[in-house]
Request: fold
Amino acid sequence: MESYPMAVVTAPGKVEFVKRTLPPMGDHDVLLRVKACSICGGDIHLYKGKHPLAPLPMAIGHEISGEITRAGRAVSKVSVGDRVAVEPVIICGRCHFCLRGEYHLCQDIRYQYSAGQGGFTPYFVASENWVHRLPDSVGYEEGALLEPLAVAVHAARRAELGLGQSTAIFGAGGIGLFLLQVARAAGSSPVLVVDLLAHRLKTALALGATAAINAAQEDPVERILKETGGLGADRSFEAVGVEKTLHQCAQSLKKGGICGLIGLFEEANQVHFPINLFVQKEIQIRGCRGYCWDFQVALDLVKAGAVKLNPLISHRLPLADLPKAFEILLDPKAQAGKVVIQI
Ligand SMILES: [Zn+2]
Ligand SMILES: [Zn+2]
Reply:
């Protein structure tokens, strides 16, 4: 096969297309013609050169869907012509955690992009074990968005989110808006969403938030206490990655409550925390890392119509415009939601 382009961040603020030839395919691998790849908050950290776990240069793109155009000899779970979403993890399959089924904690976990295969490219090789077949009712763009939705599903499970629980979500970016819908599907009420940007809060209300709280205009902790009869929220989620919102997450939590921590902190070693709150309120903060058997639930939620993915897409661009897509995402005036690259 001839060479094809794949996007790599080579220096902060610089995306380049490098030439790539098809990697060797194993017997259980499939070749995808990539159809859609959306841009994740993690990609933006990477683009800025500030991803705490991904040094440059690094391939980008891990929210991927496509059509299977070739299948290895032993492939039996999917076939050529299937439309699939990629679960972009690479695990060892042998460590303590993998053997317990907790593959997101694998001692040697890597992601396709950190192993050199990004998603902003026309072709992608994946194992048949890590692709999920899309039903006809789920489009390629929705397929790409299953990855961040799976992150939200995982966070909801980690925080034991459920029926009748009051929930506060800090950050109405992609993950926050997915989480809002997952919380509604789980029967949480009220679901309160906090952000600084009016257009995101508007989307949150359209997607069923009980209240959208603009932290630039009012104190979100006071408002959450008011909305929950002075008790605080049963569950809170930090989906920003900033010290201030982490504090607010803990402060707005009800006694005995659980906070799910999803945001990636660029200044991870500088975070201070009012540590006595743990004891005073018997609260818990639980880290939420990636996904583990959560794609299946994410897909079911979309199939059932309980989660809507298309309203989150604000921009669609061709592959060649990927650098422009990052400019859009970093420009507050562009009011970007999820940006999907159509390939
Ligand atoms: Zn992502
Ligand atoms: Zn492992």
